[in-house]
Amino acid sequence: AVVSTQSTGCTAMYSFEAEEEGELALAKGDVVQILEYIDDDWLRGRIGGNEGRFPRSFVGFDGEVPEDAEEEAVPESVVDDETHSVSVLYEFEAELKDELTITPGQMVRILEILGDGTWYRGSCDGREGIFPAEYVAEVPPQWGITMAPPAGPES
């Protein structure tokens, strides 16, 4: 969906390094003019003379929220449950000092759900930091904090 002529902007909350042709590099604090909402995960925007796509989870919205976004943003919330843990699905390498490096198979205790729920603050192996929510999966309570998911049938 292409945005109306009314200028909608967002601010980069995190730096994003363009790795593929057509991506727009972001530096924390950059103000981006949004040109298009590509899908739930990607936007197309402009900074000065540069245009390209970038991850939606790396920016915060200045003005109106796009029509296709959730109507109500989830407020920042602290997770009360001491045993709320997630299992890491994908490697995330911390690039900023407040980020947490996580690797597949690790269990991370969630301390806080940030902003619209696309980032979590968690702790793992005595370290604490933020990481993208899409890199982890919820662990059913019956599995507990340290147990791995049940193995498939043995052959």
Largest sheet: 6 strands, antiparallel
Structural class of the helix and strand makeup?
A: mainly beta
Low-confidence stretches: 63-78, 144-149
**Which bin fits the share of residues in helices?**
under 10%
- Give the CA-CA distance, first to last residue: 49 Å
Please count the helical segments: 0
What fraction of the residues are assigned to beta strands by DSSP? 35-45%
Radius of gyration: 18 Å
What are the secondary-structure elements, in order, as H or E?
EEEEEEEEEEE
Mean pLDDT: 76
Number of E-state strands: 11
* Overall geometry: elongated
Molecular structure report:
With 155 residues, this protein is mainly β. Helix content is 0%, strand content 36%. The protein has no helices and eleven strands. Strands 6, 7, 8, 9, 10 and 11 form a six-stranded antiparallel beta sheet that branches. A hairpin with a 2-residue loop joins strand 3 and strand 4 (50-55). It starts with 7 loop residues before the first strand and ends in a 17-residue tail after the last strand. The model is unreliable at 63-78 and 144-149 (pLDDT under 50).
Observed structural traits:
single chain; 155 residues; mainly beta; 6-stranded antiparallel beta sheet; 5-stranded antiparallel beta sheet; elongated
How are the secondary structure elements laid out?
Blueprint lengths: L7 E5 L18 E7 L4 E6 L2 E6 L3 E3 L15 E2 L6 E4 L18 E8 L4 E6 L2 E6 L3 E3 L17
Antiparallel strand pairs: 1-2, 1-5, 2-3, 3-4, 6-8, 7-8, 7-11, 8-9, 9-10
